[in-house]
Every structure is written in structure tokens, then in C-alpha cells.
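Appendix B, record 7
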Amino acid sequence: MPELNRAAPDLSPPPRSERGSDRFERKRELILDAATALINQRGVKGMTFLEIAQSVNLNTTSVTYYFRRKEQLAAAVFEHTIERLEAMARDAGAEPDPQARVARYLQLHFDHHRRVLRHEERPIATLSDIRALDDAVRAPLEKHYQAVFRLIRGYFGAYGDDPARKALLTARAHMLTEVTFWLPVWVNRYSVSDFDRVRARLFELLAHGIAPTGAVWTPDPIGDLDTPDDGGADGSGPAFLRAATRLINERGYRGASVDRIVAELKVTKGSFYHHLDAKDDLVLECFRRSYARVSRAQRLGDATGGDQWHRLSTAIATLLDVQFAGDWPLLRTTALLALPGDLRERVVESSNRMALRFAGTLVDGISEGSIRPIDPMIASQVVMATLNAAYDLRRWASAMPRDCAVRLYASTLATGLFDDA
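C-alpha cells (predicted):
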């Protein structure tokens, strides 16, 4: 795509002749550290050179010597993160079989979080905010990440010329990567001394799934999740909610600007502000609507009767169908990690309440024998990660009948990631 390449901004670092050898590299790493922290807290759009300069005891002009533009710095942060993920993927990929590769990949991520909590290593950047970058900057980063994803998909074996096998391995790799990306949301609730136990329980869950041997995937269709009151508590219409939800999922919180939302809807900013005082109001209303739809799926799943596995599989199938449809998906919690602190806490708290509801179903199922004996708190977070991430596979799902896509993707939860599980 030559036009894209010609339009790309100059994101190259200063020539090597301008660098102060080790001193240059050390200062550059400090800037990357500070930028990573700010991106994780506020997203790319919320990161400023002024705050970065203050955190590393430089002036803004000095920061621009290392990174001439903010997008250049953001691209360097994400590229460094993807390089670290690639190193983990290659390390784990050297193990002799699928189970050993997945176990090693989990161990590397838990070890990383342990070192971060001990301030021995900086965290990796939240990759969801790559969506906020301009296309010319984002494209090479996505291409690099796709190469890492193919490495991880290779953990589960070859697929040859079998498209059905490729689809299954893609679902498994996607589930594994999203579970590791979701770790920062919940793993810090555990003591570092418990990480090995948590990791072992997570691996056991990924290996064997949540359904007992012989369980059948027969969810009941439960229809539309939307209620008559679908306009939002503050008067925002469903068109605003649909557009904002899709844009936030695709561009992140900061990338889904008011300009983009009104452009998609072909309305004026005045119309937007007639419904809402600020974008944050719309974001919270989008999340409130997603929370209500998940809760409704859980309630309707319970209303179908049967054992807890049947009720849970019905809720999961319904929500995956919503995600794969793509028209009005659930709002991705990971896309909201760049919200201002108080709003982010409210969203994560609501997400945790949804997870607790799933955990309750799992506990009841374990008691009656329709769910395998697993750690329900860990399993509920895996369910949340799987549902959150399904939106990204809507193109994958479009290559097959919807119910087949739902069943195939849900198999990663139901029976695990391995053929002999």
C-alpha cells in the first residue's frame, strides 16, 4: 500500500551519531518506563510530554530529542511490549508439547507480574490502546503482533490445509492470549506468595475446561437481550450507545472521540450534547447497558432450568452471539482501562460483580456435579476474559454459521485447550 507508506510520519529515532551511547540508551529506557505507566493509566491520548519530562527529571525539549512526536513515543512503547511478548512466546514455544508450552507461557506471565509488584521490572503496556493510534502508525504494530499470535497458535500443532482445524487453533490461541492480558485486572488481589498456586489452578482450568466429562453443549436460545428501556437512563438514544460501544471497542476510550462518534452517526455535536453533558457520561451509560445485558443473559439462562452447566452454557452462548454479531456488542472492559481513575474503578467494580455472578453459578454447579471441581473465582475471570475478547473474532466467526462459531469458541471454556483434555 504505497500511499499509506508515503503518508506515514517520521517515527524513526535520532541517528546513531546523535546518541550518547550507554547514557542515551539509559535515558531512553527511563522515558519508555514513564510513558508505559502513563499509557496504562490514561491511554495514549492522555499521555503528555510534560508529565513524562517531570517524571524523569528532564524538560520537555529534552524528551523530544529522544522521541520527536508523541505518537513516535507511543509506538516505541507498544513495539517494546510486543517484543517482550514475542520473547515470551518463543521461550514457551521451545517446550516439547502443547501442554508444556501453555504452562511455560503462563509461568512467564506470572513471573513478570511478580517482578512488577516487587518493582524489579516495569509492566508491559496495555495493547488495547494501540487502537487509538493513527492507521499509519498502528498498521506495523498490528502486523508484528499478528506474527506473535501465529507463534502462540503454533503451540497447539499444525492445521495443514484444514480450515476447520485452523479455526479451532485460532480460537484456542486467542483465548490464551486474552486470559494473560486480563491477568492485571484480577491477579493483584492475590499475594505474590500465592502466585504459583493460582497459576497451577489456572493452567488446570485451561487444560480441562469447566464442563465434566460427557457434558453436552446444548444451550437454549433465549432471544433478544435488549429491554424496552434501551435508550439510556440519561436520555441518550440507542444509536449513540451502539456507535460509541463499537468505537470504544475498536479505538479505545481515548480514541473514541466525540468527533468520531458524531461523524459515524452523521449528526452535529450539538445533537450529542443535547443528550449528554460529556463523553464520560456516554461511556458509563454504554457500560451500564453492557452490564444490564450480561445480567439479563445470566437471569434468562437460569430461567431455562436444568443443571447449572446448562444454565451457564446458555448465558455464555447468548453473549458470544451478541459479540460475534458485532452490531451492538458488549463494551470491552479492557478498552476502558484508560478512563480517569475514579471512573475506571467504577467500571472494574461492575465487571467484578458480573464475575461474581458467574462464580456463584460455578459454585452451585460444582455442588451438584454439573461443573468440574475448579477454582470458581479464577474460572469466573476466565469467563469474563473470554466474553470480552470474543468481539475481536467477529470476522473469524463470519466464516461459518453463527451457532458453529459460538460452539467452537465456547469449547475453549467447556473442554479446554487440548485435544486430549
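Remarks on this record: Residues 1-11, 231-236 have pLDDT under 50 and may be disordered. Residues 341-368 form the longest helix (28 residues).
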